[in-house]
Amino acid sequence: MARGLVGTIGSAVALAATVFLCARGVGGAGVPPIGPLLDPVDGAAASVRYGDLPTTESQNIPGLSGETRVLFDVRGVPHIFAANTRDAYRALGYAVARDRFFQMELTYRAASGTLTELAGARALPLDKEARALGLGWAAEQKWAASDTASEGRRAMDAFADGVNAYRATMTPATTPVEYKLLGATPMATWEPKYSVYLLMRMALTLAYDPEDLRRTRAAALVGRDAANVLFPRNMPIQEPIQPVIGRTAPREQWATIPVPGAPDTSLLVPAKAASLLEHTALAMPGAEQTGDALGSNNWAISPRRTASGGALLSGDPHLDLSLPSIWYEAHLVVKDSLDVYGVTFPGAPTIVIGFNQNVAWTFTNTGGDVADYFLEQVDDAKTPTKYMLDGQWQKLTPRIETYRNAGGATVATDTVYYTHRGPTARENGQFLSFRWTAHDPSNELDGFVAATRASTVQQWQSAMLPYKTPTQNMLVADRAGTIAIRSYGEYPVRPNGEEGSYVRDGRTRASDWTGMLPIDSMPQVTNPAQGYIVSANQQPFDPAVVSRYVGSNWPDPWRALRINELLRADDKVTPDRIRQMQMDPLNVRARMLAPYFVRAAERSGNASLAAAATMLRDWDYKYALSARAPVLFEAAMKRAVRNTWDELSPGAGKPAVAIPASVIFLELLRDSTSVWWDDRRTAGTVETRDGLLADALKGAYDSLTTTLGPVGVPWEWRRAGGINVHHLANLPGFSRDHLPVTSGYGTIAPASGANGSHGASWRMIVELTKERRTAWSIYPGGQSGNPASRRYDDRLEKWRTGQLDSLVVPESEAVFPKARILSTLDLRP
Amino acid sequence: MSFSSLILTVGALIAAGVALLWANQTRNRPMFVVLAIALFVAAEFVIGWWALPVVGLVLGLIGARRTGVVAIVGGAALTAWVLLFAWTMMEGNLGNFMHALAASMKLTPTLLLSVAAVLPALLAGTAARVGAGLRPEASETRASKG
Fold it and tell me: Cβ B92–A48 below 8 Å, yes or no?
C-alpha cells in the first residue's frame, strides 16, 4: 500500500508540474504555455480552420443604424455597402479587426510604449524609447485637443464600435496565433483614440530623422565646413519635385568637398550626447550606414501624354515590409455620398491612399526638417527639477512612466522630463530636449476623411489642409485631367533664417522656432507644362529657383532621375508602361558610379583586375535576376565607401557616425586629388582615388570568388540580392525571406540588399478618363493576418514578379460581379 | 462556441460519461476505450486542453480496477487528439502551418510533433494514475490480481 501511495503522490507531483508547464509556460526561457498552444480545438491549429472566410455570415454591431452588407471579393477585399458613412466605418472596423487584430494591438502598443503588457519585460527597451520620444504623450494631447464633433473623431468612434463588436465575438479558437505563442490575451477594448497612436507611430517611421544629430557628430570630427558639404542643404544633382519651367534635363552643380578640418570643439558636448540618441530601434531602418537612402515614388501624367487621353497616377510608396502588410485594402460605398477604394493602416478608420469615382491620390515622404534637438542646462544632472532659459530657471515637468506586464504588475518605472519644447533625453550626462512637429495637436484624420469625398483635385487639396504630420508629397489626379502635387505638413521656421542643421542651444528662447511655413510656401505644382509630375523623396525645390529652407541632405536622386528619364521619352504612356516602370531594373546610381571603377581598374594595369573590370564594363546596369555584375558592384561599393569615409569614424574599429549619400560619393569621385581618398588607417601610405577604387574592386572580386566560387550561377543577383518580408513579431516561420527581386539601391523599386526588408509596400495605378476609372494594384502579402490562411501571402509572388491585380470597384451591390464574390458578411444593429 | 453547440457538446459529454460507466460495469473493454476517446473529444470542446488532466483523472477513478488503465487512458487521449487534428487537416494545410509554427518557436517540426503526441498521453495517463491511486481498494484489488 505504501508503494501505491508513493506512486500516487509521485504521479500527482508529475501531473501538477506538467499542468503548470502547460498552463503557464516558462516565460524566462521563451517557452509559451504549450497546453493552450497545442490544443487541437482552440490552440494554434485552430488558425487552419479559420483560414478561409465563411461563405455567408451575419453579426451584430451595437450602434449600427441599419443593415450593412460587406462583400469580400476573391482577393479578400471587403466592399462595404452602408446606409451612411458612420456605418461604413463601423463595418470597416469589424472587417479589419477580423483580419488584423494582432497587428492593430501591436502597432498601438508600439506607439504607446505598452508592449510589455503584451510581450513582457523583453519589450521594455522598445517601450522606453517610445515614451522617451513622447509618442504616447503627444497622442494624448492630440486626442484631448480634437473636436468631438469633427469628422475624424466621429470616424474613429464608429471604427472602434466595429472593432469592439468583432472583439466580442472572438473565441479562443479565433484568437490570432501570435497571442497563443506569447501566452497573451487580446486587449479587451479598442478605444477610438488608439487610431491617433497609430498615426504617431507612422510619424515616427516617416518624420523622425535626426539629421542634426548626425551632422553634429560629423562636424565634431571633421569640422563644420566639411560636414556642411558632406551632408549638404542642396544636393549636387537637381531634378526637383516642383519642376523648373523650360528645363528638360537635370541640373548639376558640383562642389569641392573641403579637406577634413580640425574637430569642432564647440560641438563635442552635444555630439557626445547625440551619439546614443541617433539610432532608435523603433524608427524606420534606413540605409545611413551605406549612404544610400531608400524611399517612395509617385508620378502622374497629364492626359496629353497618355495613350487613353485620361490622367494616369502611379502610387508606389516604399516602407519596411512586413507580414501581414502595413496596408489593408478596402472599398467603402454609401449611396450618393461615398465611393472610395484604396488602402488603410489597420487601425485607421478611413482610406489613406486610393481613389474615388473622380479623384486618385498617393503619397511619398517629403522628409523635411521638422525636428530639432536642444542642449539643455539643468540644475542637477541626477535629479533635475529645472532648466535654464534666458538666465532664469524654469521648472521641468516630470512625467512618471510606468511599465506593466499583462497582469498589471509594474515591470519598471522611469521619469521623462519635459521642457516647453518637448521631452528630454539624458545621454552621457547631458540633457537634450526634442522639438518635433509631430508632437503638436493635429487631426490628420479630418483631412483623410474629407478628402475621400472630393470630386476635383482642388477640392481634395482643400480637404487635406488640416494635415500636419508627417510631411508628405501628396500627388492627386482627377477625371477632368488635372494633376497636382503639394507637400502637406508643417515646416518649422527657425529664427533669423537659421537652418536646423545642428543641435541647438537650449539656454535661450532665441533658439526656438518662430512659426510654421504657410501652405503656399510648400513645394507644389499643378498641371506643369512638361505634362507629368514625379516625386521620389528627392529635394523638392531646385535652390536655383526657390531658396526656401525645408530640409537638407535629401535622399539620392537616382529614382527621380530614372523616372523622369523614362517619362520624357514617352508621350503615349499606358498603365502597363507604368507597371513596367515600377519594376524597372536599371540603376542610375550604378550607371554613374561603375565607370569610375572600370577606369581605375584599367589605369592600374593590374591583370588580376581584368575580369572584374570586364564584368562591370559589359554590364547594362540592370539588376536582372540573372545578372552577375550587380553583386560585384555592390560589394565593391561597400568597400570603397567604407575606406573613403574613414575620417568620419570616431575611433579605430568604430563605424562612421554617418555616411554621406552616394551622390556625394560621386561628387568626391570627380576630384581625383582630394585628401579624402587617403585612408588614415594605413600609416605611411597615401591612397589615391584610382588606387582605392581598384583595391575595392579587387577585394570585392577576390572575396566573392572565395565565398561564391568562380563566376557562375552563385553570383547571380537572384541569389545575392533579394528582399525579406518579416513577420511583424519577427517570427521566422511566418516570414518570407530571401525573395529574389530585380531591385537594388537606386532602382525605381529599391531594395536594401540581402539582409534588407525595405521595398514597395503598395503599387497602384489609376487611370481616370472622362468615361471611367480603372485601377490596378498589389501589395506584398495578403489581406489576412492569419499565417494559416491562403490570404496571408497570396499576393506575394505576383508582387515579386511585378504583376498587378485588376481591381473590382462596383459602384453598388447590384452590379457586383457574382463570380468575384468570395464571402458575404451581413452586419445588423 | 455558440449556445446551441455548447448544449449539444455537454449533452454528448454526459451521454458518453453514462455510457462509459456502463461499459466499465460490464467490463466491455473495447467499448470503454471508444467511449474514453469520445469523452476526451467532447470535453476538448468545452474545456480545451484541460480535458486531458480532468477527463484522465475521472477515467482513472472510474476504471481503477482495470488492468492497464493508465495506458488505456493515455492512448485514448492521444487518439482523441489525432482525430481532432485530422478534422483540422480536412479544413486546410495543417502540415505546412505546423512547420511554420515550429520554425517560429525555433523548434524542428519533428520535435513539435513529438511534443504534441506525448503531451496528451502524458497528461491524461498521469492523471489517470493519480485517479486510480485515489481509490486504494481498487488499487489493492488490481495489485492483488497482479
Answer: yes
Higher pLDDT, B22 or A11: A11
Please give the sequence-ordered ranges of beta strands (E in DSSP) within A718-810, or none if there are none: 723-727, 736-739, 758-760, 763-768, 773-778, 805-806
- Answer whether A361's CB lies under 8 Å from A475's CB: yes
Cell numbers 490570404 correspond to what residue?
A791
Beta bridge pairs of residue A440: none
DSSP secondary-structure letter at A266? Answer: G
Write the pLDDT tens digit of every residue in A204-263.
Answer: 888 887 778 888 889 989 999 999 999 999 999 999 999 999 999 999 999 999 999 877
Cβ–Cβ < 8 Å for A326, A796: no
Interface check for A737 against chain B (CB to CB < 8 A): the answer is no
Buried residues in A366-386 as b, exposed as e (16+ CB within 10 A): bbbbbbbbbbbbbeeeeebeb
Are the CB atoms for A374 and A511 separated by under 8 Å? yes
- Which SS3 state, helix, strand or coil, does residue B82 take? helix
Q: Does A19 touch chain B (CB under 8 A)?
A: yes
Across the interface, do B102 and A733 touch by the CB < 8 Å criterion? yes
What does residue A319 show for φ and ψ, rounded to 5 degrees? -150, 180
Nearest to A583 by CA among A798, A356, A266, A301: A798
Q: Residue A328 pairs with which residues in a beta bridge?
A: A344
CB atoms within 10 A of CB A569: 7
d(CA A396, CA A424): 10
Write out A6-27 in H/E/C secondary structure: HHHHHHHHHHHHHHHHHHHCEH
Which grid cell is A610?
581584368
Give the angle A474-A211-A437 at the CA atoms, nearest 5°: 50
* Torsion over CA: A166, A168, A173, A177 (sign): positive
Question: Per-residue confidence at B31, pLDDT binned at 50, 70, 90?
Answer: confident
3-state secondary structure of A778: strand
CA A828, CA A809: separation in Å to the nearest integer?
24
Q: Which residues contact A498 (CB under 8 A, 6 or more apart)?
A: none
Q: Answer for the pair A297, A563: CB distance below 8 angstroms, yes or no.
A: yes
Chain B residues in contact with A785 by the CB 8 A cut-off are none
Whole-structure pTM value: 0.93
Cα separation, A33 vs A31, in Å, equals 7
Tell me the β-bridge partners of A299. A314, A534
Torsion of CA A575, A578, A580, A583, to 10 degrees: -140
Residue A143: alpha-carbon gap to chain centroid: 24
Which of B45, B84, B99 shows the shortest C-beta gap to A733? B99
Say if the Cβ atoms of A51 and B92 lie within 8 Å: yes
C-alpha–C-alpha distance, residues A125 and A333, integer Å: 43
Distance, CA of A800 to CA of A773 (rounded, Å) = 26
Model ipTM? Answer: 0.88
Least Cα distance to A512 among A495, A498, A500 occurs for A495
**What amino acid is encoded at A485 in this protein?**
I
pLDDT grade for A272, boundaries at 50, 70 and 90: low
Distance separating the N- and C-terminal Cα atoms of chain B:
45
Place of cell 543641435: A503
Three cell numbers written together for A200: 504617431
Among the residues of A521-624, which ranges form H helices? 558-568, 575-582, 588-604, 610-617
Q: If you ran DSSP here, which 8-state letter would residue A191 be given?
A: -
Residues facing residue A487 across a β-bridge:
A473
B97: closest CA of chain A, how far (Å): 6
**pLDDT tens sequence across A58-101:** 999 998 999 999 999 999 999 999 999 999 999 999 999 999 99
Judged against a pLDDT cut of 90, whether residue A265 lies above it is answered with no
**Among A8, A45, A732, whose Cβ lies nearest the Cβ of B85?**
A45
